[in-house]
Amino acid sequence: MTALARSATAHLWTGMLMVAVLLVWVALPWFLSRSAIDILVFTGIYTIAGLGVSFLLGQCGIVSLAQSGFYGIGAYATAYGTTVLGLPIPVCIVLGMLVSAVIAAAVGVPVLRLSGHFLALATLALAIIAHVLFLELEWITGGTLGIGGIPRISLFGFTFATPFRFYYLVWPSAFALLLAYSLLLRSRTGIALRAMRDAPAAAAVAGIPIASLKVRIFVLSAAVGAFAGSLFAHYVSFISVDSFAIDRAIGFLLIAVLGGVRSIPGTIAGALFVTAAPNYLSRLGDIHPLLFALALIVAVIFLPGGFGGFMANLGAKLSSGGRRPSAPAGG
Amino acid sequence: MLATRRLTAGYGTVPVLFDVDLDVGDGESVAIVGANGAGKSTLVRTICGLLRVMGGEITKDGRAIQSEPPYRRAELGIAVVLEGRHLFDELSLESNLRIAEAQGRKRREARFDFRFDEVLELFPFMKGRMSAPVGVFSGGEQQMVAVARALLLKPELLILDEPSTGLAPKVVREIVGVIQALRKKGMSLLLIEQHIAVAAECSDRAYVLSLGKVVQQLDQHSWHLPSTTDALARAYLGNRT
């Protein structure tokens, strides 16, 4: 078989696989219980938030634990905007993203000058500050009482009121963002990011404005996190400060690491693990956090490239019949 | 073109360079020689902005640039080939070059306008290998990629840090050929080189750096005397080449 024919066949297979995945995705809620669909909805929401964290970590080497803060800002913006100010939902969602973006830009400039452990600790501090503010700014957030009665999202008279319906809102959003991030990675900016990751000194002297590029990606990640937070608020219709604590920040980072930080689609697998594993393990009783931790350790040891890296390796092996060494997971 | 005055720089709070005065004139090629640990690479990293200045001044055409970030210095026409090449290994040759080309395009009124195809002519081996990741290239080829990348930034001053280190003699001749071609074009060069003979061949004047200080300046005449280069090689580098 010529190389051309082989690549055409490979494209055909990829195309068919994608159609199959799409069909399964569309059909899935019809065969699942309400609670299983609920898990998938959360998987979608977390995929969106985790995407921002994953891209920051995998493409810019920035460990961000601050995502729970931006997620919270998105959630509170839409909750406060719709229930107190009576603004339309789309306006509130955009507002939350803007507020997050502005805050990310303001804190990103000083914080992103740090690197390694110091950067991680600084973003952890941001998450803690955000959590305290959510608790203390009661006139906006309702403190521990939270905000209830957040309206459901409607589109053309169709209300996304049930998990079943919300599934068809959250996943197209997640897929659109996955696609957008994949395109970003292939764009000139994406190439500059990979250059910066491979050889930071050379990237700097090659004229890449490293500091501002990092801040821009951080701002994007914050806006995406806020969007996920807004979806969350409209889905559960009641939010309180407990949803935006440090464990959520760690959860988002886990999604990135488990999904494989170099793999954009891997984020879905990471989000599924972080959403589903605690849920199903909790049925085994009080031992569930321990089992979750064990599952995490096993995943990290046996899948160093995350689920995404594993799938990319598998795909490379299958498509070459095992002749080619594993390709790097290029997202 | 480039000047440093009482330049002090180093790592953390520890200075490595002390009061370095250096000039590179328009169209001039200046060499910096000195033993390992003399501060040559520190000097390069300070000039291009990777290390912060602790004292003194760096000027480009009379304008102080020591507080500009690295990418701004690239925009002002200073390009550098760092020691050890520092390529974007995972990216293809084409991506490596296009990144620099995109930045170089911002320099509209550049004195030396290296277009993509002109650079390829300078390095014929690149033709037909554009999609290969540069990590698989040989050491000499990688050095050429690093030089090509620097040229695409359309610099007025090109800084080369140890361009011949670790390369076979034949490849060193090729690099020398490229450097001579750039000199003929009138580009200003700052050349850091352990290989004294190569340094002398490729430059007009030289500074000798020892323990972070300029200990000797050699004008065109004395720099090219065989006795000088021999003495230098013995005194600072512990070899005769």
Task: Describe what this molecule looks like in 3D.
The complex is a heterodimer of chains A (331) and B (241). Chain A has 331 residues and is mainly alpha-helical. Chain A has one domain (33-286): ABC transporter involved in vitamin B12 uptake, BtuC (Orthogonal Bundle). Chain A is built from 14 helices and two strands; from the N terminus they run ααααααββαααααααα. In chain A, strands 1-2 form a two-stranded antiparallel sheet. In chain A, a hairpin with a 2-residue loop joins strand 1 (154-155) and strand 2 (158-159). Mean pLDDT of chain A is 89; it is low at 322-331. Chain B is of the alpha/beta class and 241 residues long. Chain B has one domain (2-237): Rossmann fold (3-Layer(aba) Sandwich), CATH 3.40.50. Chain B is built from nine helices and ten strands. Chain B has helices spanning 40-47, 70-75, 93-104, 116-122, 139-152, 169-185, 196-202, 220-223, 226-237; strands at residues 2-11, 14-24, 29-33, 53-60, 63-64, 78-81, 157-161, 188-192, 205-210, 213-218. In chain B, the strands form two sheets. Chain B has a six-stranded mixed sheet, sandwiched between helices. In chain B, strands 2-1-4-5 form a four-stranded antiparallel sheet, covered by helices on one side. In chain B, helix 3 (93-104) runs parallel beside helix 5. The longest helix of chain B is centred in the last third of the chain and has 17 residues, at 169-185. The relative contact order of chain B is 0.18. The mean pLDDT of chain B is 89. Classes of the chains: A mainly alpha (331), B alpha/beta (241). Chains A and B meet through helix 8 and helix 9 of A and helix 2 and helix 3 of B. Chain B: This is ABC transporter ATP-binding protein. Chain B: GO terms for molecular function: ATP binding. Chain B: Belongs to the ABC transporter superfamily.
